[in-house]
Design goal:
87 residues; mainly alpha; globular
Amino acid sequence: MKDLRKAGGAWLKQCRLHRGLTQLQVAEAVGLENYTMISMIESGRGRIPPESYRAWAAVMGLTPQEFVREIMKHYDPVTYEILFHPD
């Protein structure tokens, strides 16, 4: 699970860099008081709370559905498999 979260963090960092945003800009846009939380999330040591998914999606230029589908791969792979790859 730790490796999945690291991969999710790497994806988030890639999205942020693709948009040309700093960690501080993302933190401000999603309502975090401390931009070091972005570093923790990107390194896989933290998680985005579900109530912030819409804000994160907007910052990353994704629909909420696109964002949740991708982040769920890393945060909740069992639910992801059930929803998107049923038997």
